[in-house]
Amino acid sequence: MNLVNYTTRGTVAQPDGLVSYEVREIVVTANIFFGEIVGLLGIVANVINVVVFSKIGFGDSVNLSLAALAVSDIGALVTLQWFNVLLNPWFLQLDLPFLPLEIASLTAGYPHNYFVKVTGFITAFVAFERCLCVTLPFKVKTLITKRFAIGFNVAVFFAIALTMFPVYYTAYYDWKFDAKKNKTVLGIFYTKNINDVLGPSLFLTNSVVPLVSFAVIILCNIVIAFRLKRAAAWRQMSTGASNTAPAAAVSLKEKKMVKMIVTVSVIFIICFIPSSAILTARALMPELSITGVYSNINAMVATYAMEMETVNSSITIVVYYRMSSKYKETILLMFGWQNNKQKKQSESQNLFPKTKPND
């Protein structure tokens, strides 16, 4: 999501609107402070995710995709950390040789948007893969091989990078005179054809691309929930009284799988609702722009949206730990928190099996 349009009173003069400038700065500072703390924890958590999935092994293609998702989340969090620094009202008061708000767009804002879109498509791919597991259980291993998963994840990183080309083609950094500071500082400049090039590009990257990933995630999870519930109902009807325990065990495993997939997907969608809302509102209400009457509201919601994106990229470790027995076993073993008996526990309920590669 493109939330890089943010300013301060010192940059552009505007009326307070419904919210005062002072209230805005308090909320923005709080959002940034919270985002910095959660973001740092999230970076560590995703590094752990990559290590854990590497130890589990990439025989199952879903492990590879979830490791790629962790890499994308690391990129999103690192760039957002830098973005939060540049937006911090205290940082803006420093005597710097550059204009932080102008430096933010190309070095933090758009790179963050890139990783966010990659995260969306990888999440959609994981949901689609699990959808195939319940709809075509005997064909999924031939359709989604390890080689295919590697190719898809690499292609996502590369394809989304291509969509960012117009942004960097129409903008560049150079020295300019800042009247407020009364000195020459590094700032942003735009090419003459920016409106012709960037307009259609931003519509594609900020509207079409996110909506595609959202639609795939929602549709796949609806299909998964429907098919597994129907399968569980069929087994319950066809199982005799003497086999109620095995039936319950299968049902529990199915529920855990559905819960994990739906949880990751729902968290992703919920965390990006604020971003979608502010972008839609800006399009419908010009006064929500950075120079409009409601610019203070814009800044508050935009930083809150970035805060929610930080949560989305940081919380997956909790989901995996609580819902995958193999992930939990591996991370406990990795940190030396598991005894010998626990090390030999069955992996029958493992959602991330370590299987032989299926190339």
From TrEMBL:
Q: Gene3D superfamilies recorded for this chain? A: Rhodopsin 7-helix transmembrane proteins
Q: Does the keyword Membrane apply?
A: yes
Q: What membrane topology is annotated for this entry?
A: Multi-pass membrane protein
Which UniProt key words apply to this protein? G-protein coupled receptor, Membrane, Receptor, Transducer, Transmembrane, Transmembrane helix
Q: Which InterPro entries match?
A: GPCR_Rhodpsn, GPCR_Rhodpsn_7TM
Q: What does UniProt give as GO cellular component?
A: plasma membrane
Q: Does the keyword Nucleus apply?
A: no
- A single GO molecular function, which one? G protein-coupled receptor activity
Query: Which protein are we looking at?
Result: G-protein coupled receptors family 1 profile domain-containing protein
Organism (species): Biomphalaria glabrata (Bloodfluke planorb)
